[in-house]
Records
---
Amino acid sequence: MRVTGLIKEVREQVKDWRRQGLSVGFVPTMGFLHEGHESLIARAAAENDKVVVSDFVNPIQFGEHEDLSTYPRDFNQDQRVCARAGADLIFHPEKEEMYAPDFSTYTEVENVSKGLCGKSRPTHFRGVCTVVSKLFHIVLPDRAYFGQKDAQQLAVIRRMVRDMDMDIEIVGCPIVREEDGLAKSSRNTYLNPEERTAALVLSKAVAQGEELIRNGERDAGVILAHMRNTIEAEPLAKIDYVELSDADSIEPLQKAEGRVLGAVAVFIGTTRLIDNFMIEV
Ligand code: AMP
């Protein structure tokens, strides 16, 4: 497995693979890799001849008062996870390699970026789409792998790829959870033991919403009220949003019909966590 921080070297390596007729899968990450990331890399390795993983904490997707400076990093561990999962190349650039001091071009997806996380993080998806389109241009993969954990991000990326005619297949992968249900996240490391227990209200509420729909409930008001009650019963939890949306457009739903995304964002202390379920009704 090769490691580089240089765009030029990624391009040369991928060109060399292409000359040999090999397919390329790509997994963009912000590092501090866990089994969720690992599942994406392993899937990419199973479906492509070569796999590129990017490991870059993208500054422009963080808001001014968010956790850019404290975001966890462990590149040695990341290399071990990548090697184990079958990656061939890690792209681990410095911020200066990705952003010129006078950088001034952005990729923005309207509408899909506005609801859910877009409400409390108004510049987040612009930062995500900008870095992902840059990375797509650098790697030129056949397929790119994203977690359903960030369901709105997946919807936004799918829309970007469709609208901008990017010739890349976007593959959504299931949420990987801890044994007790908490969705794996690099940010779980911020939680103290008391908060770690409290954080279980996210997966509990998500499982409850999905169960209600499976049992025939269709009224979004009823479903959301149950989910909110579950979260509000936990004193350390503060709701950012609890919503039912169309999984592709991220428009709010009054009735659970079609491809339904039930998504929650909750502050546990100062840590903001997200979780969701997706169900076809
Ligand atoms: P991040 O490093 O948080 O930007 O995540 C990189 C990729 O890993 C994104 O596509 C995420 O959706 C995905 N991912 C993060 N956590 C999980 C998880 N628990 N299960 C599945 N995919 C995940």
---
Amino acid sequence: MDQIVIRGGQRLKGRIPISGAKNAALTLLPCALLTDEPLTLRNLPRLADVDGFGHLLNQLGCSTTIEGSRPEDFGRVMTARATTLTSTVAPYDIVRKMRASILVLGPLLARAGEATVSLPGGCAIGNRPIDLHLKALEAFGAEIELASGYVKASAPGGRLAGGKFTFPVVSVGATENAVMAAVLAKGTCILENAAREPEIVDLCNCLVAMGAEIDGIGTETLTIEGVDRLHGATYRVMADRIEAGSYACAAVITEGDVELVGAKADEMEATLAALREAGATVEETKAGIRVAMSGRAQPVTLSTAPYPGFATDMQAQFMAMATLGTGASLFTETIFENRYMHVPELARMGCDIDVRGRSAVVRGVEKLIGAPVMATDLRASMSLIIAGLAAEGQTEVNRVYHLDRGYERLEEKLQAVGADIERISAG
Ligand code: UD1
């Protein structure tokens, strides 16, 4: 298996291009199932999960073609066309490897009037149920059965009737599935306490470009007037605010100065506020956002929350950054019950972190020492890269496939700003 090897201590300086957002891409791709016309997505990141989602679309009868972007370019253009669906089943083998596969449930139900999708099961960061996805669809008129590890959903008469659902807790995935199901309903669908993440705004904007009628985009109440059919569209995937935030943490821990090209400040205000709390200079530039740091990070107090709060997807990276801080930082994880799996690995590099339930106290230390490490999920893996960039000596990050799921050509981007980092292929 590939490894990433970092010799730490280089200050990051220069420009880092920010790719299209993974979490937006994985909810825009299933929109192709909603129409028989082509959906062309620009600025799709080159990631293992995007390829995996393309294969799932192919299994459902949706063709995918990638237009000739040069290998040295970041991003790709993909056209997906589901002229007719040949299957409405997302099998266990695919869903278990790629959780985002459950996002075909809403679109298949809307287009075909039925969908059979494997239950995803647990994952490394927590229990992650999908009950709210199902309750929202039921509120819109779906009939749901659970059997043999699968969800079987159907719309009586082939089309959802419409209705109203109030989320008891904010769920990004359930909001996405519900919106994609609602756009082709016979009536009006209302979602209250809906997620407001920028990726949901991106999804809604793409659906509107396809002919959907959605009111309240970017607010917690979405009103969707069902239409008889959607048409094709060309849509550009938003910039990845989590990738941008991750490189910002890398800049701070190395006392660097980077420009995150393409990043949008108004989509990542909580992250930028946390960087400022740590003492970084953060400013908007013409091309994106500049993050610069001199000296060690000041301690931060951060609690994860749905957007516009501090993202759970940024917690591990800020924790890595805080390990070299000047004092004690406090983290509280409110979204997932088990998202501190990076802590024991960071401890192997000399960090001082104390986890108590959902909270973690990080006491800044003078230095980190490189070590062989591995992580169990994507953002945790990135936290080890960030720590490795500042550690003395060599850090070997194993299980690189997690990073390949979410960071487009990570080592190339970091090399270009001065990091001593390379991928060692297992051959
Ligand atoms: C979550 C994050 C998202 C992040 C992604 C990957 C939030 C609100 N969501 O999205 O930012 O990109 O993980 O790390 O920060 N829940 C239920 N039943 C459901 C669905 C969710 O109880 O049917 C609970 C979850 O257990 C969790 C909370 O709701 O505590 C939010 O989950 P949700 O937003 O659905 O998770 P993801 O869509 O995976």
